[in-house]
Amino acid sequence: MAASPPFRFVGCIELLENLGVKAQDERELLEFLRRVPAGSVFYHTCGYFLRHRIFVGPYANDFATWTAVHRGDRVLGERLAVVDPFDFADPEQLREELISIVSDHLGHLRVPPRVDDGEPFHFVQSHVVEIPTGLEARTLAEFRDRLAEVEASAIYYHTVLARTRLGRGAGDFAGWLRGSLGRDDLAAAVERTDPYLSSLERVRSRLLDVLDAALDAGPAAEGREPAAPA
Amino acid sequence: MIKIDDYREVAPRGTVDLLLRLADRVRGRRFLHISATRFGGGAAEALQRLMLLMSELGLDAGWEIIGGDTEFYATAKAITAALQGEERVLTEEMLEHYLERNRASGGKLPLEADLVLVHDPAPASLVADRPAGGTWVWRCHLDLSAPERRIWNFFRRYAARYDAAVFSRPGFVPHLPIPQFIVHPSIDPLSDKNRELSRREIRTILEGVGVPLDKPVLLQVGAVDRSRDPIGVVNAYRIVKKHHDVRLVLAGGGGDGPESGEVFAELREAAARDPDIVALELPPDAQLQINALQRAATIVLQKSVRDGFAIGVAEAMWKGKPVIGGAVGGLPAQIADGVTGYIVRSAEGAAFWLRHLLNNPELIARMGGVGREHVRRNFLITRHLSDYLALLAHLTATPA
Question: Which domain holds residue B84?
Answer without folding.
Answer: 4-186+380-395
